[in-house]
Amino acid sequence: YLPSSFERPPRNPAEKISSGYKAWEYNTYFYGFLPGLLRSVQDPRYYRHFCKLVVGVRIILQRRIPVAQLSVAYRLLVQYAEEFEVLYYQRREERLHFVRQSIHALAAHTVPEAYHIGPGTNSTQWAMENIEPG
Description:
Number of helices: 7
Radius of gyration: 16 Å
Largest sheet: none
Structural class: mainly alpha
């Protein structure tokens, strides 16, 4: 059994790394497989940090999100962003360029937007991936 939004296993990324690979396939690897694969090999503090991202994003990508889970997702994603500052660039100004604004957007805007417009699955572009240009 492979949990997926699309009910099929992702293709081998080594064969499609530069073209033709779908966002949902990266999503499956990153949020589905990677937590299990990293558990025994990654430093525990980095693993816990990564898991906060995974749980927060999994909540946001549900088709229906209970309001109580939105607050959990918000807390985890804010913690993820704050810990990212400490773990990866040590809050040093000369390293700030290593932080992408997507880290801020994820923590500050994703959950409030889900509260206002609904789950992320309603606003992703995965549906567009299967449309071939005419």
